[in-house]
Design goal:
The complex is a heterodimer. Chain A is an alpha+beta fold. Chain A has 24 helices and 21 strands. Helices cover 46% and strands 20% of the residues of chain A. In chain A, the strands form five sheets. A five-stranded mixed beta sheet of chain A has the order 6-8-9-11-10. Chain A has a five-stranded mixed beta sheet with strand order 19-12-13-21-20. By secondary structure, chain B is α+β, with helices and mostly antiparallel strands. Chain B has one domain: OB fold (Dihydrolipoamide Acetyltransferase, E2P). Classes of the chains: A alpha+beta, B alpha+beta. The interface between A and B is large, with 43 and 41 residues.
């Protein structure tokens, strides 16, 4: 592994650990955390420090060291994790995150002064000066975990011969150990060198046996030698438990180490009661000469708690998965082609075979797509922090409730959903939730509630952000819209249309512009991002009761359920979710110049004639159909020739050349290898509206030169 | 017949190149478009396919004939004759689609674009000395489309400047002008005139 790759691994690991740290700190603020959680908190920082040390990232090590000291006190119970301390720790977390991010970019490290300021604040909370922190912390920890039975400890350091090569000095380790605990006796044990020439000064020839006195745990002792573990065998146990301990680890420890430890410990005054056990193991295990390398197993075994939260996941590069899914898309198409051929050949055995293949392909595709699925919780998880920070900044009390975090959607969508959700949540806290006095006056609890919820509904995922705040003030929105000239003063708008106004660029009804929101940027970006994900956003609101933002998204961007239609010679795919029903076009309305509105059960349905609109060759068919589409809260009829039916389809992007072509959302390849275009019905209707208004506008007041533009 | 003549020239220039400056000889694919022969550097050419079914894309400039399925990728196909403001290419027995890789400077990616030609002739090795700078006028083609004029058998063949001819940027601009007829202000009109000249 090259240094760069190693560093990248470190950065990834550190990010994960920082996430854990943040989650623990946020949890700890609300609930009284137990010792195990505090240990985990300590370990996150400790591990970052350890790994940073490997890469000689001194700034990170120095900073984490101080944080670690404080956390150690917290873990030892000498320092309570108060709200204020958690706040400072969270800011330390941010500082660390900034440092790690800077490493990732290869950019400038964040301001050292800021780090130093944070540390001094931290020390103020811990009531310790920086120099004292390191020394006093463990001493204070001691009484908390007092256990007279475990006062005397035996330690055997079967250090690897390569230790010095790795830049680790055993003397330094021992010095550090001495700062943690009282060392009664150290027994150096020379290994493999018999005083006759060939001395390699960079080789470690020493093992140590130690007798320690103090209150500690095996974990703490092993932590001291964290970096020396590779290739080494480190044994530690209370004197009282030495015999059972040696027996317990006999299976996974090299026998010569066991024997050496046992002998050395006896020299330190330990008298084995059950001496036989390790010896019994010896003859059997002596067949394994690779002694030192087996060492770490013992050590790992003794720290089972550390990895317990880790589930069995594989990290796969996103690109590899994308390639696989693309290939499966090809397979789907190829399979469909095979199916078609089998049908044409009319051989029933061939057809059966191709059906079997199709079934398998379907399963593979579902499986592959599910690999891309991640839980919405991945984005929800960052909100406790956001809500907490924003609420503190605004001096509001907010409770965040999260439900449905296990609903799944496509990874690529999760990434793009973070920012819009962030905007909505910040808005909800800033504008939605009223100040405590107002809330109390309205008979609501002083603490506001913001809720994030996700659930699946008929092939799409719905994400709701709701608050129990003041709700949207329709009059104020209307007033503002009239002021800004978005609508005329006498316009009659439906409820949804009024709410939709807040998504207009630059629209804000907030009386005050704050840091958080109110500048009127944001909501238009929110709507645009959601629409880019082929989603819809709706608002439900009741004055003084609350507001719900409801985002409806397709589960994946890669595949849609389509409805195929044929116009003249071209096949188009309409997203099935937009299709409401299909009706036949009455023959008297066939000519393209006849009325463009249909009476659908006494409802006026504007017709969009695809053939005319797209300038396609006139159709020869004598039957026309209307596909009724639901677009927002309106209906539009699409006039086509033939209905070809439902079809699940893999979306292929059309490429940059067509980026100006909004009405076509993409393309797909049919079973016969031909390309069919997928209509983006929202954009299509918007475009038609725009073109119509432009045409009538042009005739009246544009100059003839412009009117003569191509495409008119 | 013309293929034969070109072949002879081809051999000559190869021999010539081996004798002197091997590095200055580049290879070009010559093809037929209307009554004319053009050539383009082979380095950008991915493959040459027989003409197959194209799906027309509505609301796009005429010279975009449609999109085709290239082993699962959807590739746009451009009618070079229409791009050069000449009569539309009619499909014949020898009609071919030449798949070219084009850089899109805006997104810094490579795009595959197919060009529809009447027939593909052969690969020519042309040395630098045989290439003249594009004439300032009189070539019946936008001068920035021409990379140079190659002297082959006492005739001149136009070497196309592929990045210009298939400029994703320009084609997108043309397409957006078509889609938003009211969007083009007077300031943008000269561009249209230029492109469609």
């Amino acid at each position: 592994m090259s240094i760069e790759a190693g560093l990248q691994a470190f950065i990834d690991e550190a990010r994960e650990l920082l996430q854990q740290m943040e989650a623990i700190l946020l949890d700890a603020e609300t609930a009284q955390a137990d010792a195990e959680v505090m240990n985990a908190l300590f370990r996150t920082v400790h591990t970052i420090k350890g790994s940073a040390g490997l890469f000689a990232l001194d700034a990170v090590v120095a900073f984490t060291h101080e944080v670690e000291n404080v956390l150690d006190q917290v873990r030892g119970g000498t320092l309570a994790l108060s709200d204020t301390l958690a706040s400072v720790l969270l800011r330390c977390h941010d500082h660390l995150e900034a440092m790690i991010a800077a490493l990732g970019r290869g950019g400038q490290m964040p301001d050292e002064a800021a780090g130093a300021a944070l540390l001094s604040e931290l020390h103020a909370h811990a009531a310790l000066s920086p120099s004292q922190a390191a020394r006093t912390a463990p001493a204070q920890t001691a009484p908390a975990t007092a256990d007279p039975e475990q006062h005397d400890w035996l330690l055997y350091l079967g250090l690897s011969g390569d230790l010095l090569h790795h830049g680790i000095d055993p003397a330094a380790l021992l010095r550090y150990l001495a700062s943690q605990i009282r060392i009664v006796q150290v027994l150096p044990l020379p290994q493999n060198w018999h005083g006759t020439g060939g001395f390699d000064p960079e080789h470690n020839y020493l093992h140590f046996a130690l007798h320690l006195q103090g209150n500690t745990s095996r974990e703490q002792l092993l932590d001291v030698f964290e970096f020396a573990r590779e290739g080494s065998c480190i044994l530690a146990c209370p004197v009282a438990e030495a015999s059972p301990y040696l027996q317990a680890i006999a299976a996974e420890t090299p026998p010569d180490m066991l024997a050496a430890a046992s002998t050395a410990w006896q020299q330190l005054g330990w008298s084995p009661q059950v001496q036989a056990a390790p010896r019994q193991e010896e003859p059997e295990a002596s067949g394994t000469p690779v002694a030192a390398e087996n060492g770490p197993a013992t050590v790992k075994k003794s720290k089972p708690a550390e990895k317990s939260g880790e589930s069995h996941f594989l990290r796969v590069e996103a690109e590899k998965l994308d390639t696989l899914i693309n290939l499966i898309g090809e397979l789907v198409i190829a399979g469909a082609a095979g199916n078609l051929l089998a049908k044409q050949a009319g051989s029933s055995s061939l057809l059966e075979w191709s059906q079997g293949i199709s079934n398998l392909i379907e399963q593979i595709r579902t499986g592959a797509l599910s690999m891309r699925m991640v839980q919405v919780g991945e984005i929800f998880n960052r909100f406790p922090r956001v809500v907490r920070d924003v609420a503190k900044e605004l001096g509001k009390q907010i409770e965040l409730k999260i439900s449905g975090a296990d609903a799944e959607l496509d990874k690529s969508m999760v990434e793009k959903l973070g920012d819009p959700l962030m905007h909505i949540v910040r808005n909800a806290i800033d504008h939605g939730i009223e100040p405590a006095e107002v809330r109390l006056a309205r008979g609501k609890p002083a603490q506001g509630t913001v809720q994030l919820n996700a659930y699946h509904e008929s092939g799409s995922i719905v994400i709701e952000v709701s608050d129990d705040g003041g709700g949207l003030n329709r009059h104020r929105i209307l007033q503002k819209a009239v002021d800004r000239g978005l609508i005329s003063a006498d316009a009659q708008l439906a409820e949804q249309e009024i709410y939709a106004l807040i998504f207009e660029p630059g629209f804000s009804t907030a009386e005050q512009i704050t840091n958080i929101s109110g500048r009127g940027v944001g909501m238009d970006v929110v709507r645009r991002s959601i629409e880019q994900l082929r989603g819809m956003i709706t608002i439900e609101s009741e004055l003084e009761v609350g507001t719900v933002f409801r985002i409806r998204l397709p589960l994946t961007l890669a595949i849609i359920d389509g409805f195929m239609v044929k116009v003249a010679e071209s096949v188009f795919v309409v997203p099935l979710e937009a299709v409401v029903e299909c009706v036949e076009l009455p023959p008297e309305m066939h000519p393209d110049d006849s009325s463009n509105c249909l009476n659908l059960r006494n409802e006026l349905l504007p017709l969009l004639r695809l053939a005319t609109f797209f300038d396609l060759k006139p159709s020869t068919s004598d039957k026309r159909n209307v596909v009724v589409l639901q677009i927002g809260d309106r209906k539009v009829g699409l006039v086509v020739d033939v209905l070809l039916g439902e079809f699940q389809t893999v979306i292929k992007p059309l490429g940059d050349l067509f980026r100006s072509l909004k009405a076509i959302g993409g393309s797909t390849i049919l079973g016969n290898g031909q390309v069919a275009l997928i209509l983006d019905v929202n954009e299509l209707v918007q475009y038609v509206v725009m073109r119509e208004s432009a045409r009538y506008g042009l005739e009246k007041d544009r100059d003839p030169q412009l009117a003569a533009l191509p495409g008119k | 017949m013309s293929a034969l003549t070109l072949q002879r020239q081809n051999d000559q220039s190869t021999a010539h190149a081996q004798a002197e400056h091997a590095a200055e000889v580049a290879q070009y694919l010559s093809f037929q478009l209307g009554g004319e022969t053009f050539a383009m550097g082979i380095l950008n050419i991915r493959e040459i396919l027989e003409y197959e079914y194209l799906t027309e894309v509505p609301l796009m400039p005429d010279f975009i004939r449609g999109v085709m399925n290239l082993r699962g990728a959807v590739v746009p196909v451009i009618d070079l004759a229409l791009r050069f403001n000449r009569p539309r290419t009619e499909l014949g027995r020898r009609s071919c689609v030449v798949i070219v890789e084009v850089d899109d400077p805006e997104t810094e990616t490579q795009q595959l674009i197919g060009i529809l030609v009447d027939a593909v002739h052969e690969v020519l090795a042309i040395s630098e000395q045989e290439i003249e700078a594009p004439p300032q006028f009189g070539s019946k083609l936008r001068t920035d489309f021409i990379a140079g004029m190659a002297r082959v058998d006492n005739r001149f063949i136009v070497l196309l400047n592929v990045p210009k001819v298939l400029s994703v940027e320009e084609i997108t601009l043309l397409a957006s002008l078509r889609e938003h007829p009211e969007g083009g202000g007077p300031g943008e009109l000269p561009v249209v005139g230029d492109a469609a000249q």
